[in-house]
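thought: user wants a sequence for this fold. calling inverse folding tool.
action: design(structure=
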């Protein structure tokens, strides 16, 4: 007979199901605090009608604390509410902070699923190590996300929308010395979303960063830390000032090699059907969508080269027709075609400026898997409800 045991840390229960010495499964459980004024079904329906991206939030959040000597404790699933932070809290000064982006999808049969959540948990810990922060057990990370999705399942839009989940952690020591914090808060919030880009944009116009780089070898480029995004905002403002949707960064050493966009990875489709994407050299984010696109393209018989591609090559290949499609990808953006590239010296079109055929095929395969409409042959979908 399987045996269920409960191990209680400081306010954090851990349930372990064992058979002899074998662990069958384990689950973290969260202290649940009732919401004093949950959103009414009518108000929620109105918010879900047109949520945009990142502006509407669900009723709940999960928080877990970490303190040196105690580890993770006080896991709470409760009402979403502001943090109260001392003005000297370390994160406000030295940006010791990391985050993840993932989504819950409503499937055709009404269930709710996550997509490869363990990949986000692994990347979160890689980011934590790089930023000198406490790592978190993967099952606690995934368990926290699941607990929030279950509590706010009614907020998962149907149709093309999804519930964007934002796990993050930050340094909470009240101290102005420059050293890793001895305490952290891990938190998960959720936001029902539609598309990341403004409606009506079928293909993006991309601005090539002028005078700004995003990451250098040995830096934090591969980590999902807020600082990487903050450092890209002036370039994103430059992109907007030039009427572009996104910025693409070139490498810091030679200002020549294409790296990634302000918040997503980039792919190129060549006329011979091969794909090319910048390699994971430590300066770009190892995207979960990026890895999934590589797998899906290979499954469909395409060669994918993770190889450097220079801006000059991109421009001349676009002009000669050797490169016929380009797209950005990430959890928030999914797969978004690039139609035009603008830079200090002019601009060029990608083919006819419209989404390419392979870009659309990959998008429909990926979203089909996520919504249970296409066979999930890699076991990427993780059912929650
Ligand atoms: C994501 O795609 O989830 C991102 O993190 C990109 C951006 C919204 C920061």
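)
observation: tool returned 385 residues.
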């Amino acid at each position: 007979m399987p045996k269920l045991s409960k191990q209680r840390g400081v306010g954090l229960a851990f349930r372990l199901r064992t058979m002899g010495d074998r662990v069958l499964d384990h689950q973290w459980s969260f202290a649940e605090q009732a919401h004093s004024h949950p959103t009414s079904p009518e108000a929620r329906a109105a918010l879900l009608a047109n949520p945009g991206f990142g502006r509407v939030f669900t009723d709940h959040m999960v928080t877990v604390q970490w303190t040196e000597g105690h580890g993770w404790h006080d896991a709470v699933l409760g009402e979403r509410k502001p943090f109260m932070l001392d003005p000297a809290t370390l994160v406000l000064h030295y940006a010791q902070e990391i985050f993840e982006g993932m989504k819950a999808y409503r499937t055709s049969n009404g269930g709710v699923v996550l997509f490869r959540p363990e990949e986000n948990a692994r990347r979160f810990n890689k980011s934590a190590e790089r930023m000198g922060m406490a790592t978190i057990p993967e099952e606690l990370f995934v368990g926290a996300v699941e607990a929030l999705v279950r509590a706010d399942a009614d907020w998962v839009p149907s149709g093309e929308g999804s519930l964007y989940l934002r796990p993050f952690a930050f340094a909470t020591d009240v101290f102005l010395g420059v050293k890793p914090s001895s305490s952290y808060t891990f938190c998960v919030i959720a936001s029902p979303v539609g598309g990341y880009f403004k409606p009506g944009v079928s293909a993006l116009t991309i601005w090539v960063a002028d005078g700004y780089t995003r990451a250098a070898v040995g830096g934090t480029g591969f980590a999902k830390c807020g600082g990487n995004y903050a450092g890209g905002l002036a370039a994103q403002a430059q992109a907007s000032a030039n009427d572009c949707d996104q910025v693409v960064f070139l490498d810091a050493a030679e200002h020549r090699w294409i790296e990634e966009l302000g918040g997503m990875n980039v792919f190129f489709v060549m006329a011979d059907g091969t794909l090319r994407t910048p390699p994971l050299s430590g300066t770009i984010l190892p995207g979960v969508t990026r890895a999934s696109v590589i797998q899906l393209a290979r499954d469909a018989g395409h060669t994918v080269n993770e190889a450097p591609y220079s801006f000059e090559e991109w421009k001349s290949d676009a002009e000669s027709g050797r490169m016929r499609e380009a797209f950005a990808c990430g959890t928030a953006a999914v797969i978004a075609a690039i139609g035009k590239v603008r830079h200090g010296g002019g601009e060029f079109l990608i083919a006819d400026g419209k989404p390419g055929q392979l870009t659309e095929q990959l998008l429909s395969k990926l979203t089909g898997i996520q919504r249970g409409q296409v066979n999930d042959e890699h076991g990427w979908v993780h059912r929650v409800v």
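thought: summarizing for user.
answer: Here is the designed sequence. The pocket of 2-OXO-4-methylpentanoic acid is lined by residues 101, 229, 263, 330-332 (CB under 6 Å).
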